[in-house]
Write a structure and sequence with these properties.
The chain is α/β, with parallel strands linked by helices. It has four domains: about 1-120, Nucleotidyltransferase, domain 5, CATH 3.30.420.40; about 155-365, ATPase, nucleotide binding domain (Nucleotidyltransferase, domain 5, 2-Layer Sandwich), CATH 3.30.420; about 390-500, no CATH class; about 500-590, Barwin-like endoglucanases. Helix content is about 30%, strand content about 25%. The protein contains 20 helices and 28 strands. Strands 15, 16, 17, 18, 19, 20, 21 and 22 form an eight-stranded mixed β-sheet that branches. α10 crosses α11 (about 270-290), α11 (about 270-290) crosses α13 and α15 packs across α20. It is globular. The termini are far apart. Bound molecules: adenosine-5'-diphosphate (ADP). The site of adenosine-5'-diphosphate has 13 residues, from α10 and α12.
């Protein structure tokens, strides 16, 4: 499939024709200095189409900066999607109107060619509430959609995927810090494939120092400039968006190469600009390692991340305490290109891997657009998926069982669970958190090799712990918890998780649904009377031991007011019970995902 990728800015149009299957760029171009008039984007797209000289275009992929609360996945564009992107425009007044002008012009110029919007914000929709929430009056925040959205999502997702492939490890086992350091710059903490923290927020102004933007800034500075120092809103806008960052600090401009040259000549402003830039990035690396309880790899990308040898060294020096050390020679020699996307610049002894990865947002957009378009041809799906609410529970190994229940203790089955071979036990334990305890938590059998304690968000708050959302069995680096049994207590250094919602499937089911182990899908849940809800990020688990069933936790069941015999269905864009590949089901769905329910306090 040949996808024309359009990146429409306020004053330029960048385009690339990409063969999605071979990942080859077939043609590319740029139209600069667009007039700020109606029709300028249409003229630019005409120019691009002329340059394409009749080359086949099977689909158009549009980069759209802000998808607001609505878009968590790429969307096939129709009038309703255009209206929804328009509704997000107040959140990105510089970007979304230009993106929309491109969409309108491309739809007019290429009628009948499917068009897909790919959003910079979408990858960050998995930010937990504690990371996406500003500590503001919630009524004000809700009224204006003020929260942390995050940007550069396409790039962070792309380099994370490339890094995992290079490391030969599944993304869902890795904790990554990705650093997109270009003219715009942002950091992202990616835990097991999901963005859990990112440095840009409500707008792309927050976070790292950028080419012309300051990044983090006390909001009081803005108030003081407006109130005490007589600046207008436009003055402050210009200061923050155009006259700050590397350019503002150095007085040289936003190109790091020139700032470095000037610094080498002894210019103190240029030196300070470099030091402030590097310091800010370092600070975020440390913060994000703390957020994830550790880090397996740091990934640098975009113009500065891919090319600036000295800046990489400044950012990553003296991080040995994290288990991270850079190899000076590898760092100096690293070259990445479309042909060789990844360079390993870590010292061979470094526990934390350090990778330079060439980003390619256009390629990612082309691939996403191709998936959405391919997914329009769907096939009939088999019957509904039963839903089970999984209450808090504990899995133990033999050693833990004996510590808690005495030497030689065995589990006493109480009743069988729906998954073959699994059972609830007579035995229970008490969970002791730093804040409060929860007594009588059921042990599930059979014994496992590792202990695991699965609780809900409400339990987490009650106990006073932060438990990561994890797939069952992935307990490395999760939260600690103390268990109390009749014969002893046991403190687990890790093992406490909130379980990712998931669907158990037999391989035959997986085949029928067209999904694989580890895929993420969206599921429409037919809950209580008149309440149909969409659960996003549902992971597929396939084993010959499993029977078809979706598991959600008690908070989610309460929020959805689920009845006893609730069922769910994999989603496709029209909301019909059609199957497609899981990835496509996820990418195609244009419905909002159910947010995790509010804490009810405890
Ligand atoms: P964007 O796409 O956000 O406009 P890029 O990803 O192209 O930005 O990054 C631009 C930045 O990369 C500029 O600050 C530029 O100076 C910097 N850069 C590119 N090559 C080098 C290099 N060899 N050394 C230092 N900085 C570099």
């Amino acid at each position: 499939m040949q996808v024309l990728v359009l990146n429409c800015g306020s004053s330029s149009l960048k385009w690339k024709l990409i063969d999605a299957a071979s990942r080859q760029a077939l043609a590319r171009g740029q139209v600069e200095r667009l007039a700020r008039t109606e029709g300028a984007h249409a003229a630019a797209i005409d120019e691009a189409l002329r340059a394409l000289d009749g080359a086949r275009v099977d689909a158009v992929g549009h980069r759209v900066v802000h998808g607001g609360e609505r878009f968590h996945d790429p969307a096939l564009i129709d009038d309703e999607v255009v209206a929804a992107i328009e509704a997000c425009a107040p959140l990105a007044p510089l970007h979304n109107p230009a993106n929309l002008a491109g969409i309108r012009a491309a739809r007019a110029a290429l009628p009948g060619v499917p068009q897909v919007a790919v959003f910079d914000t979408a990858f960050h929709h998995t930010l937990p509430r504690r990371a996406s929430t500003y500590a503001l009056d919630p009524a004000v925040a809700a009224r204006h959609g003020i929260r942390r959205y995050g940007f550069h999502g396409t790039s962070h997702a792309f380099v994370a995927r490339e890094a995992a492939a290079f490391l030969g490890q599944p993304l869902e086992r890795l904790r990554l810090v990705t650093l997109h350091l270009g003219n715009g710059a942002s950091a992202c903490a990616i835990e097991h494939g999901h963005s859990v923290e990112t440095s840009m927020g409500f707008t792309p102004l927050e976070g790292l120092v950028m080419g012309t933007r300051p990044g983090d800034l006390d909001a009081g500075v803005v108030l003081a400039l407006l109130r005490e120092y007589g600046q207008s809103v436009d003055d402050v806008d210009r200061l923050l968006n155009q006259a700050s960052g590397l350019a503002g600090l150095s007085g040289v401009g936003n190109d790091l190469r020139e700032v470095e040259e000037r610094a080498a000549q002894g210019d103190d402003r240029a030196r300070l600009a470099i030091a402030v830039f590097a310091h800010r990035v370092r600070k975020y690396v440390g913060a994000y390692a703390a957020v994830m309880g550790g880090v397996d790899a740091v990934v640098l990308t975009a113009g500065i991340g891919e090319n600036a040898v000295a800046m990489r060294r400044r950012i990553l020096q003296r991080l040995d305490f994290l288990g991270l050390s850079l190899d000076e020679d590898r760092n100096a020699d690293a070259r990445v290109s479309d042909a060789k996307r990844v360079a390993d610049v870590g010292d061979p002894t470094s526990r934390v891997r350090v990778l330079v990865v060439r980003t390619d947002e256009e390629l990612m957009i082309a691939e996403e657009a191709a998936k959405v378009v391919a997914g329009r041809t769907a096939v009939r799906q088999p019957g509904p998926i039963p839903i089970a609410v999984s209450a808090r529970h504990v899995h133990l190994n033999q050693e833990a069982l004996e510590t808690l229940f005495g030497p030689g203790a065995t589990l006493t089955p109480r009743n069988d669970l729906s998954q073959p071979g699994q059972f609830a036990c007579q035995e229970t334990v008490n969970l002791i958190g730093p804040r409060r305890r929860i007594d009588g938590v059921r042990i599930l059998g059979p014994l496992r090799s590792k202990c695991q304690v699965e609780i809900s968000r409400t339990d987490e708050f009650h106990l006073g712990v932060d438990a990561p959302v994890r797939h069952s069995g992935h307990v490395e680096g999760s939260a600690p918890i103390t268990l109390e049994g009749p014969k002893g207590t046991l403190t687990l250094q890790e093992g406490l998780i909130c379980a990712w919602r998931h669907i158990h499937m037999h391989p035959d089911d997986a085949k029928a649904f067209g999904v694989q182990d580890g895929d993420e899908v969206q599921v429409e849940v037919h809950g209580g009377p008149g309440r149909d809800l969409i659960f996003g990020d549902v992971v597929i688990r396939v084993s010959p031991k499993f029977r078809l069933e979706m598991h959600i936790d008690t908070d989610e069941a309460n929020a959805a007011e689920l009845s006893q015999h609730a069922t769910g269905q994999l989603l496709t864009p029209e909301g019909e019970e059609l199957a497609t590949t899981a990835a496509t089901a996820r990418l195609l769905s244009r419905r909002p995902t159910l947010r995790r329910p509010a804490l009810t306090g405890a």
